[in-house]
Amino acid sequence: MARYGTPGLLRAAVAVAALLFAGVSARAADPLPVSEIAPGVFVYQAPFQLLAPDNKGAIANVGFVVGTEGVAVIDTGNTVEAGSRLLAAVRARTSLPIKYVINTHMHPDHALGDAAFRGTGAKFVAHAKFARALKARAESYVDAAKRQAGDGLAPKLEDIVLPDVEVADRATLELGGRSLELEAEPTAHTDNDLTIRDSATDTWFLGDLLFMGHLPSVDGSFEGWVKLMTKLRDRKAARVVPGHGPASAPWPAAMEPQQRYFDRLRSDVQALLDRGASLREASERAGLSEREAWALFDEFNARNAIEVYRQLEWE
To answer: Quick one: signal sequence residues (predicted)?
Structure first.
């Protein structure tokens, strides 16, 4: 017996109880509708919506990969309810243990459902800068969720889950018969973007480095994101999974609309800067020709223009 800790029999009983609780929670939740986009790779395609009671926080693409020995979950949604529905979707497909819960970045629509997986025995995996970034915004994320979805649905501060495994460069996770290749990317959409590639099917989860249909939101570095897009576009993949958009898409064609929007936004902001326009004018005028091409344009374009203006004025 170890000097410190619970005796073996009691430890086993606690572990079994946790797994049973997780199983009951999964059965009680309505499973997210997922599609098998490649053998053993499942994705929930989210609607283009902001957090609201009706969508219960399932507003970002999330998924899971099933190996012969275990499962890896990739992103979990904006609420514990969304995470529970994803857990139910996993359990509807396999009884294998969930080995990993991987976050592509710290934004609430991707990471605040993590608490639903606490009782599964999974290790939580994220970029090395994820914990710092999430802790810095946790309170504001919880407050925003309360305003948007109400106290009953919004996560609490104690629902914030920090990673057990941090990726500073690259890492490989084994699931049995297939491996996941993780790469920490430089500052782009955020400063903690992580990409995940399934070796068995060459499926590449890009998180919010790729938006399709839903307007991108700039939070990290616009110029960094543009540079990273060029780097990513040169890599091959059988298919990609965007953070928002279809469950999967061909690569690199999937990047073209986002590239067009970024090019237009940069060009418009630069032209406004060249003639001495104010920050407010840039937020009101830049990128408007793209409005009809994107959902949630009015919710995100002005703040994108502000970020681009601030970055370009110092060049």
So the answer is: 1-28
